[in-house]
Amino acid sequence: MQACTTGCGNHDPETDTVKINIPENLEPEPMQQPTPEELEAEEKQRQKEMHSQWHAKEEMDKKEAEQRRREAEMEKARIQKEEEKQRAEEQRRKMQAEQERRAAAEAEARRQEEAERLQREQTQKSISTWLTQNGYSGDVNTPKKTYLKTKYPINTAAKQGNIAITEMLIEEGAISTQPDSRGRTAYDVAGRKNTNGSHNAVLEVLKRQGGNAR
User: Fold this and answer.
1) pTM higher than the cut 0.85
2) Number of structural domains the chain divides into
């Protein structure tokens, strides 16, 4: 009940009250069961939702599989690139090592050539000095003639027992079996002068060169 507070004037609570009759034993209406069509529609909707979810999961799985495939390919490409880089670096090191080896070999060959050149120059200088000191002029096979005698540098070196000059003369092309005017070779001359082994070393040098042959 609601009373008027303003502008209503005099009122009678008895007559102004609104009465509502509520029936006794009011029971709720029974729930309406879904029809077969509704059930079928609900089933279809449920299956549609399940299919949609399955399809969405399938798409997600495909995307993940594709992502894994791409990552695997990228990793494979990275590994191949790294291996190629390592092979290229190894090849570069090998080429560099080979170049260094060749350069070292060439430098060693030049050093040896220079050493041999200097040795030849020293040998030729020593021979030239010795030839001059012993009255020879010309090369190592040019004889020295005095009256009726003819002898060669190799004979004089053997007579002196000069091992170093004997070896140098032979190295420069002196004929160790060349006889003098008496028919004696350098080996014969050294043998005649050999006293208590004084010329053994020269005889050995001449023997190695075949100077003892007749």
Assistant:
1) no
2) 2
